[in-house]
Specification:
With 504 residues, the chain is an alpha/beta fold. It folds into four domains: 67 residues, no CATH class; 123 residues, no CATH class; 64 residues, no CATH class; 181 residues, no CATH class. The chain is 47% helix and 6% strand. It has a five-stranded mixed beta sheet with strand order 6-5-4-3-8. It starts with 20 loop residues before the first helix and ends in a 20-residue tail after the last helix. It comes from Penicillium alfredii.
């Protein structure tokens, strides 16, 4: 049976009730309000009412019967929908029919919620590690090369298993790439992937902007994609407002707020009742006077310094939380306020450090010429901390833990995962952790860190870092030292003395 409130969805305060359901239905089809007690429509035209009154009287009974039939049809449709959601297969709006029989009861429930529900994507962007999709109700879904993740509590409680947001998003994306739905049911796995469909990260390669345009999602400039430095006005306002928070970065600040200058708003239209931050964000984007005042209160140089200090502090706290967990089993007391949302598993820590370095690199270009010294300090600090962790983090722990998930010593070694195992010559995707970002800075900005970088080089030589990594870092050290002596030239990486003997 249809919900009782369905019949009243067109009513509002001050509007008169229609005399009959037939009149209400005819008014809705005509795109006007039902007649009021005086028998007048919206335009108050008595003649038009007189012309139609006879026809209405003749058809009223037939209309009421039709409405009753329609209610019965609605009831049948709803009963049919209820039956389909309880079945082992489900057909979505994308036209794909999914087979849920391989899911456990909890994953099946999340799949049903996602595949039959509707979420709004505030914005999407390509990042170095994949693609980010910011949803309206705060969660952010990340599509990586080998993994899918979401910041919602449902996913965080059972990482590795898709939440309703992941099931929904993958269906939306696959629907964009399929010329026609598969002829048979598509089996879903617990991680949200469909076994017979191509990996979505491969389909999205170079196509995210076209997908966003088709689905009417806001597409944000990709991090470090080279399409011009600087920030949009909305990004600048977000940066300024987040600068007043001691821990929140612009990337994590109110992802539900999205505005563009293409849609104009008056000052009155910028007001969001009960939400001061949202109101100030809109005013900053649309009101030149407010934007100018915000920029004076928090200049670009100050925002840059605050940003890189925050990233450095977040990385320090992340590793401190990880060390404490490995030694004692103690998790962060306030997981929501801790970096990475309280992540303490080694794979989560490594991923978060990689994201931090990626954010720094993107912001070096976006904030130029401000903040380069702070960026260098943050990068060197992260590199130094990772270089000092060439060890088994569980060695000598006080809670008797032998491994996290049956991995070996190397698989929980932060240094090995970020530097020791990376070989860009054989695996271009591995990159040069931190070094790629440091090379984006002028050698003069690295001058004050030259001695510390040389100490790091000596340490990772002992730790047997890959030769290409040693060559690259050696070139950076010499460039920084040359800048200190008045030179600005960066030596070629091939000239590094990386073949020198390592101490045993």
């Amino acid at each position: 049976m249809s919900a009782p409130t369905k019949q009243f969805h067109r009513l509002s305060i001050g509007q008169n009730m229609p005399d009959t359901r037939a009149q209400h239905a005819r008014a809705a089809r005509a795109g006007r309000d039902p007649p009021d007690e005086s028998g007048r429509g919206d335009d108050g035209d008595d003649s038009s009412l007189a012309e139609s009154s006879s026809e209405e009287d003749e058809n009223e009974e037939e209309g009421e019967e039709g409405d009753d039939d329609q209610d019965a049809d609605d009831s049948d449709d709803e009963d049919s929908d209820d039956e389909s959601t309880n079945a082992s297969t489900i057909r979505t709006r994308s036209g794909i029919t999914y087979d849920l029989t391989h899911l456990d009861s909890e994953s099946e429930a999340k799949a049903l919620v996602g595949l039959t529900g509707q979420f709004d994507v505030v914005n999407c962007r390509a990042v170095r590690s994949g693609y980010d999709f910011q949803l309206l109700d705060r969660p952010r879904v990340h599509v990586g090369r080998d993994s899918l993740s979401c910041t919602c509590s449902t996913f965080q409680s059972r990482p590795g298993e898709a939440c309703q947001h992941i099931f929904w998003l993958l269906d939306q994306l696959h629907g964009c790439f399929l010329a026609k739905p598969p002829p048979t049911e598509v089996v879903l796995a617990r991680d949200g992937r469909a076994r017979v469909l191509p990996p979505i990260e491969g389909l999205l390669d170079g196509q995210l902007e076209a997908v966003a345009d088709r689905l009417d999602w806001q597409y944000l400039r990709a991090e470090g994609d080279g399409r011009g430095a600087g920030m949009t006005r909305a990004e600048k306002v977000r940066d300024i407002l987040s600068a007043f928070s001691p821990v929140t970065l612009p990337e994590d600040f109110r992802g539900d707020l999205a505005e563009t200058t293409t849609q104009t708003r008056t000052a009155e239209q910028c007001v969001v009742q009960g939400d001061f931050e949202a109101t100030m964000f809109r005013l900053g984007v649309h009101d030149d006077g407010v934007f100018s005042s915000l920029c004076k209160a928090m200049p670009a140089g100050a925002c840059a310094a605050i940003y890189f200090d925050k990233v450095q502090e977040q990385s320090r706290r992340l590793l401190a939380d990880f060390d404490r967990y490995c030694a004692t089993g103690e998790r962060p007391a306030d997981a929501a306020a801790s970096p990475g949302g309280g992540a303490v598993e080694v794979r989560e820590v490594v991923a978060q450090l990689g994201r931090s370095v990626t954010h720094i690199r993107a912001n070096i270009a976006a904030r130029a010429p401000h903040g380069s010294e702070g960026a260098a300090k943050a990068l060197v600090s992260i590199l130094e901390a990772v270089a000092a962790r060439n060890k088994d983090p569980l060695d000598g722990n006080r809670w008797g833990r032998v491994s996290f998930h049956g991995e070996d010593e190397d698989q929980r070694n932060v240094f090995y995962l970020l530097i020791g195992a990376a070989d860009p010559d054989t695996d271009p995707d591995s990159g040069f952790f931190v070094l790629d970002a440091l090379e984006a800075l002028p050698p003069a900005d690295l001058r004050q860190f030259a001695e510390k970088l040389r100490d790091i080089l000596r340490r990772i030589e002992v730790n047997r870092a890959p030769k290409p990594y040693l060559l690259r870092l050696g070139a950076l050290v010499r460039a920084a030292e040359a800048a200190g002596a008045g030179g600005q030239k960066r030596p070629a990486a091939g000239n590094n003395g990386g073949n020198s003997k390592r101490s045993r």
